[in-house]
Amino acid sequence: MRKIELVHEVVLEESRLNLKIKSNDVDLSQAVEIGTLIADSDNASLLYIIEEKEDFVYISIPSSLWNEINNAYIKELPVYLTCEKGEMLLENWQFELSTFLENVEGNFNYGQEFVEKVNDVFLKR
């Protein structure tokens, strides 16, 4: 089964970034990182995939939160997913985001509007 959980808040601390979800349905102590970051270009979101029990959970990160994510990415801060039932370190985050950005840059298969949003936040020149 597949679930989608929305990141509703990003908290940038001095030594880490917290992606907060509100879900009571996801137990992060039972989750493992799949380590894949994909685009949801229709909703202008990034999707990071984890697995909890036997379910794939797509963590949706809307473009409104990307600036804080980019700040943490530049500083190479560890990224944690947090909710009421714990937290988990997203160990592959930096690599996945870096690879994703390389694939999106100039690739309008994602749609021009999505690529422009990614460029505006992550690939400013």
Kindly summarize this structure in a few lines:
26% of the residues lie in helices and 41% in strands.
Overview of this structure, please?
With 125 residues, this protein is α/β, with parallel strands linked by helices. It has one domain (2-122). It is built from three helices and seven strands, in the order βββββαββαα. A seven-stranded mixed β-sheet has the order 3-4-5-1-2-6-7. A hairpin with a 4-residue loop joins strand 1 (2-12) and strand 2 (17-21). The longest helix is centred in the C-terminal third of the chain and has 12 residues, at 93-104. The model has no long low-confidence stretch (mean pLDDT 94).
Number of domains: 1
Helix/strand/pairing category: alpha/beta
The topology string of helices and strands comes to EEEEEHEEHH
Coarse morphology: globular
Side-by-side strand order of the widest sheet = 3-4-5-1-2-6-7
The helix count comes to 3
Separation, N- and C-terminal Cα atoms: 41 Å
Task: List segments where confidence is low: pLDDT < 50 over at least 5 consecutive residues.
Answer: none
| Strand tally | 7
> Which percent band covers the strand fraction?
35-45%
User: Average pLDDT across residues?
Assistant: 94
* Sheet with most strands: 7 strands, mixed
Gyration radius over CA: 14 Å
Helicity range: 25-40%
InterPro entries: UPF0738 (IPR020908)
Pfam family, one: UPF0738
What labels describe this entry?
seven-stranded mixed β-sheet; alpha/beta; 125 residues; 26% helix; 7 strands
